[in-house]
Structures are given as structure tokens and as C-alpha cells.
Design a protein that fits this description.
Blueprint lengths: L7 H22 L6 H13 L4 E5 L2 H11 L7 E5 L5 H8 L3 E5 L13 H4 L4 E4 L11 H11 L2 E5 L7 E2 L4 E2 L6 E5 L13 E5 L2 H10 L4 E3 L2 E2 L10 H11 L2 H19 L5 E2 L7 E2 L5 E5 L2 H10 L29 H9 E4 L7 H15 L1
Parallel strand pairs: 2-3, 2-4, 4-5, 5-8
Antiparallel strand pairs: 1-9, 6-7, 6-13, 8-9, 10-11, 12-14, 14-15
Helix pairs in contact: 1-8, 2-8, 3-4, 9-12
The structure holds pyridoxal-5'-phosphate.
The site of pyridoxal-5'-phosphate has 15 residues, from α3 and α4.
């Protein structure tokens, strides 16, 4: 049996009619840059995230990058970043001219280890970027407390966690920091047909600044107030995302059901650790990541059996060649290093069938037993 890692085709079937109708209308009008359709999606996404404002951008990386700029973070500043995340979190900091300072992760949630944040704070620290990795919300209350105490900004990287909830504050991710950053990369829980991103915020000043920053610094036609960027979310993508947003909660529920099935079938085996939903979190399982002993043997076996698995992520950021200049070495972040050796992501999407999950779990258990 062949089991793909994601299934964008089934998702497309569900939204095809609405998407076609809206695209047809857009194409007839020819409003491809900014405009009413983008405004509408921004309003709806802001509402969904329980915030006042949203700004559509060209990618999740740009959301982090322009978000940092909008908070005045740049040269000589330091920003705290978990060492185990997709590299874009750190790249945005570097491209803003600041220095990412890595912090190890918690072995169970895969998110930043909050107890280790204070040690990483210096006179130059300006912000913390909690990443809601794999769809699991970070424990935000203690992060906000640290940020308040040290006068730091909080930039939520919610690229993998659209719709995830942090129970103690009754909030959706993205709405608790100064800004929340999202990616609409096609395979994300809410994805478009290319690249796209979004910043959400309750701060009107930041919102106004970002609208200018993403649009070549334009304040009115051919009048430019700042040296801005071209980083608008394509209106075409906004139209697609508007249609898909209506399904997000349903799809997240289906992901949660699938994750529950995996866990029911796999838990209890002493050679693996299932992902754990923290008590404060409503996880949306962008990724279902297990830890397995002798991981590489399991990965080769599953691939041979037609099961498409991935490793998120094989190398923590401090060991990436791209970040050699920061001077970290092997052993500096022992939890992330250990997790990187053991972790494996199983197929995860809303349309996985029960029998597919059973097949995958059986194959894993057969090999481990
Ligand atoms: C945690 C995280 N941050 C940032 C990004 C960057 O988003 P994009 O690929 O849309 O630039 C991603 C995307 O994969 C991500 O997973």
C-alpha cells in the first residue's frame, strides 16, 4: 500500500467549487494586487485568530522578518529562538540584522524550554520567538511573564499551528504576543496554492506600519514614506484561503482524531514515545512526530513498505552550516540533539483513513517487537 505524507488532492476536491467561483470573479475584475478580496480575508483571519488586525504577506518567513522590523528590532539586537524549529524562524532574525540566540527545547512538547530562557537573556535581548511547533501551543503565560519582567517583545511563530488553542488564556495562537506570524505554505493546516503568510496583531500602530512596509513603503500613489518591501499576499491566494478558512476547524478536528488513533494504537510500546498534548494545549497536529529508538532503521523500513515519512528536523539549528558563524558546538543543546536523532513524522492530514493508520501502526509495531 502507498500512503502519502499529505493529501492535498482530497482537500482540493472539498473546496474546488467555491475556489473556482471566487477565482472566476476575481479574474473577471482583474484586481490581483491588494483590494477588497484581500481586505476581506484579512478581516476574517483576524477574527478567527481573535485579534483586531491582520496583514497578508508573501510568506511566513516575510511575516517573521517584517514583524521584527515593525518592532524596531535590528542591528546589535538579540532575539531568543528555540534551537529546534524550521530554520526560517532564525533566518528572519538574521535578515533583520539581529542575532538569534538559541535555547534548548522540552523533550515532551518539542517547544522551547521555558526554564532555560532567562539564562539566554543579555543586555541586548529584545524579543522572544516562541514557536508553536508541529501544532502544539507553547505555554504562553510564563513566556509573557518573562517578557514583561525584562521588557522584551513576544513574536509568536504560529506557522505550523493555525487554530491551535492555549487553554489558560482561552486564546488562539498568534493572539497572545505583540504579533503572531503565520505561513500559508501549501501543506500547512491552512495552505494556499503557492507561498503566503500573515501577521496578526492588536496593535494599530504596528498594523499601519506593516501595511506600508509590505507595499514598497507606499503612503499614497507613487508617494513613499519609508524604504519598504514588496511582500503582499497575492489576492489570488487570499481568495483561495478565504474558501479554505471555512474548513479549518473541521480539518483540525480530523487531524486530532487521526492523532488520537495513532496514539491509541502505538502507546505503551517501550521503544517509542508518542507526541503528548500538553494539559494547557489544544494541539492541531500539523505534524505527528514520534520518538523511536533506532529511528533510521524504522524510517528505511516504512519507506520500503510504501509509507511516506519525514524527519522534522534531522539537524538542530546550532549544528547547521548556515549558523556556523554563531560559534555553537555539538553538545550545547543536548535535548534537541537527542530528539533530532530519534524523531520521525508519520503521515498526517485530515483525510487519512482509519485502515491506513492501522496499517502504519502495525508495520511500526511489527518491526519494533
Ligand atoms: C515554524 C516555521 N516558521 C516559519 C516558516 C516559514 O514559512 P514560509 O515557508 O511560508 O516562509 C515555516 C514554514 O515552513 C515554519 O514551519
Amino acid at each position: 500500500m502507498q500512503i502519502p505524507f499529505v493529501d492535498l488532492g482530497s482537500q482540493y476536491k472539498q473546496v474546488k467549487l467555491q475556489v473556482f467561483r471566487h477565482l472566476d470573479r476575481l479574474c473577471k475584475r482583474g484586481n490581483f494586487i491588494l483590494g477588497e478580496e484581500l481586505d476581506r480575508f484579512e478581516q476574517e483571519f483576524a477574527e478567527y485568530c481573535q485579534v483586531r488586525y491582520a496583514i497578508g504577506l508573501a510568506s511566513g518567513t516575510d511575516a517573521l522578518f517584517l514583524g521584527l522590523l515593525s518592532l524596531g528590532i535590528g542591528k546589535d539586537d538579540e532575539v531568543i529562538v528555540p534551537v529546534f524549529t524550521f530554520i526560517a524562524t532564525a533566518l528572519a532574525v538574521s535578515h533583520a540584522g539581529a542575532k538569534p540566540v538559541f535555547v534548548d527545547i522540552d523533550e515532551h512538547t518539542y517547544n522551547i524550554d521555558i526554564d532555560k530562557i532567562k539564562r539566554a537573556i543579555t543586555r541586548r535581548t529584545r524579543a522572544i520567538i516562541p514557536v508553536h511547533l508541529f501544532g502544539q501551543p507553547v505555554d504562553m503565560q510564563p513566556i509573557i511573564k518573562i517578557a514583561d519582567r525584562y521588557g522584551l517583545r513576544v513574536i509568536e511563530d504560529a506557522a505550523q499551528a493555525h487554530g491551535a488553542e492555549y487553554k489558560p488564556m482561552l486564546r488562539r495562537v498568534g493572539s497572545m504576543g505583540d504579533i503572531g506570524c503565520f505561513s500559508f505554505y501549501p501543506t500547512k493546516n491552512l495552505g494556499c496554492f503557492g507561498d503566503g503568510g500573515m501577521i496578526v496583531t492588536n496593535n494599530k500602530k504596528i498594523y499601519r506600519h506593516l501595511r506600508i512596509l509590505r507595499d514598497s513603503g507606499r503612503v499614497s500613489r507613487y508617494i513613499h514614506g519609508i524604504k519598504g518591501y514588496n511582500s503582499r499576499l497575492d489576492t489570488l491566494q487570499a481568495v483561495i484561503l478565504r474558501s479554505k478558512l471555512r474548513y479549518l476547524d473541521r480539518w483540525n478536528k480530523m487531524r486530532r482524531r487521526n492523532a488520537g488513533l495513532y496514539t491509541d494504537l502505538l502507546k505503551g510500546n517501550r521503544n517509542l514515545i508518542c507526541p503528548q498534548e500538553a494539559s494547557y494545549a489544544r494541539h492541531v497536529y500539523h505534524i505527528y512526530a514520534l520518538q523511536i529508538k533506532k529511528r533510521d532503521r524504522v524510517v528505511s523500513y516504512l519507506k520500503r513498505e510504501g509509507i511516506n515519512v519525514f524527519i522534522h528536523y534531522p539537524l538542530p539549528l546550532h549544528l547547521q552550516r548556515a549558523y556556523k558563524d554563531l560559534g555553537y558546538k555539538r553538545g550545547d543543546f543536548s535535548v534537541a540533539e537527542r530528539v533530532a536523532h530519534r524523531i520521525v513524522s508519520l503521515p498526517m492530514h485530515p483525510f487519512l483513513k482509519r485502515y491506513e493508520i492501522q496499517y502504519i501502526a502495525n508495520k511500526i509495531l511489527q518491526l519494533l517487537n
